[in-house]
Amino acid sequence: MEISRFLKTNLDIYHTYLLIKKGWNRLLYNDRSFFRKQYKSTFGVYPDLENPKTYCEKLVWSMLNYRNEMFVQCADKYNVREFVKRKVGEKYLVQCYNIYERLEDVDFEKLPSSFVIKATHGSGWNLICSNKKNLNIARSLKMLKFWLAQSYYEFDREWLYKGLKKRIICEEFIGSEDGTPPLDYKIFCFGGVPKLIQLDIARFKKHKRNIYDVEWNLIKQVETKFEKDLKHIYQKPKNLDEMLIVAAKLSKGFEHVRVDLYNVDGKIYFGEMTFFHGGGVNDFFKPKEFELLVGSWFNLPKANHSEGIPGLCYIGRNDYFDYNDEAISRIL
Fold this sequence. Notes:
The chain is an alpha+beta fold and about 325 residues long. The protein has helices at about 1-10, 10-30, 30-45, 55-65, 70-75, 80-85, 135-150, 155, 240-250, 290-295, 325-330; strands at about 95-100, 115-120, 125-130, 170, 185-190, 195-200, 210, 255-265, 265-275, 310-315, 320. Helix content is about 35%, strand content about 20%. The strands form 3 sheets. Strands 7-6-5-8-9 form a 5-stranded antiparallel sheet. The protein has a 4-stranded antiparallel sheet with strand order 1-4-2-3, covered by helices on one side. The longest helix has 18 residues, at about 10-30.
């Protein structure tokens, strides 16, 4: 954790580290073997992709075997706004100040005192500014330059980011004055039906996470990659029913999607739609019985795509070798 924090405070070193890691993974792994490696790192075992049962196994299977062009529109942080407008109405959208395709078009002087900047073609590439007076503009521009030069797909292999137009979107900041973002309600929907709510608290400070059912009962025994916050009681939103209706309408027609919403002083805002929670391999629910329960809600679509050659690992442009765990371990 300390190394990660150090890297992120030194952007040049951090960006170099990311590019080296990206190149190394691209050299060694096709998408299938990449997901297997990442999954084992998180869960300690390789995913069963022949007979997937757990939630994350099904996410990995879906990433490798299914394509839906609507995923692409909804993954784009700008294009998804039109989808939301059409499905539930413009009133749920955070105000958009501008959309940029070139770094030189970003003029911080013309932006309001607080705002949020995101890369439309990535995940987690966010810049939160609650007070422009405290913003390090040179550092911010360096971040934006890096985002605009990269394909997020090359970092985590989620196919829906492959080929997305590289842009920067600037939106209204709806958090508190101290820079704390609002509570993030992540609603897991299956077949258009909300089944589970993940509440993310203080995401960019001391991130904590609680899991609730759709009646807002805290499920204390479930663990995720972030610590639970059991010291505070988070009240059920008075308009939770409306939030669930919004999530249901946005998720209709998808076997599974996570719909992220905010609720600020009773006003509901759309956050994003995520088809592969945690990239399928970087997050988890424990105990395993709960992973299996969530997995049972996920009815996999019919395969319409085959990614890579099963059992083979990609090395360079034209060469393959038999994939086995011992061989990879020796290389690494």
